[in-house]
Amino acid sequence: MNFWETATQLSGFNETLVDELNSKKILLIGAGGLAHPLVTSLCGSGLTTFDIADGDVIEYKNLHRQFLFSEKCIGQGKARVLKSKLEDHYPQTNISIIEKFLEEKDLFEQIPNYDLIIDCSDNFKTRYNINEVCVEKNIPLVMGLASGVTGHAAAFLNYVNSPCYECIFPRNTNINEDSCDEVGILTPVLSYVSSIVAMMTIRIILDQFTKENFLYRIDGMTLKTNQTLINKDKECFICKK
């Protein structure tokens, strides 16, 4: 029996497309709360070939939202344990790991080796660095972030004259950089955001994504999702180059 039989029964989705999902080289940056529901959705959809980069170790306070970890995993590297857990449930997976926090130099070395980047990091400095490299190398970028009861998701195809992350969140503005550990997070918001990120990723790989760029804003308490067209900032010092 085909492992993804129920998925391949969908109209317009078949084993050939599953093969297409795994023909691209993908880098997931961050193995925290967003990554857990995200990789579960991707693997369950047939996308099982990707790399995970994270230099963090598992702490007790992570467990309520990073559900693929358990108390037995405390003190171990997040990327390594996440790889192991996914391999147990999805034996078809082909996952490599980078057990370090990727600095700007690392990103310039690593990102050109991939067809698509998924950013689930939890700090703005890393996001800006990832965005800058993806723009320079014309590599599609899908981003998800969540804090408290709200979240954002966006995809940037990084073709000529397309907008980038800097266009909508310029680094010279005062942005709250508090992490989930500092301000808290309602766990279902992570699943909400990651579902959008997963579908964006799948659609981009299958070349079904519109060239228009949208920012999705999610409010977990009101259950409202706002979709805003992202316009290129002609003065953006990253993508106007």
Structure at a glance:
The protein is α/β, with parallel strands linked by helices and 241 residues long.
Walk me through what this model shows.
- By secondary structure, the protein is an alpha/beta fold.
- It has one domain: NAD(P)-binding Rossmann-like Domain (Rossmann fold), CATH 3.40.50.720.
- The protein has 9 helices and 8 strands.
- The protein has helices spanning 5-8, 15-21, 35-44, 78-89, 104-110, 124-137, 165-168, 180-183, 187-205; strands spanning 26-29, 49-53, 94-98, 116-119, 141-147, 150-156, 214-219, 224-229.
- It has an 8-stranded mixed beta sheet with strand order 3-2-1-4-5-6-7-8, sandwiched between helices.
- Strand 4, helix 6 (124-137) and strand 5 form a beta-alpha-beta unit.
- Helix 3 packs across helix 9.
- The chain is globular, with a radius of gyration of 17 Å.
- The model has no long low-confidence stretch (mean pLDDT 90).
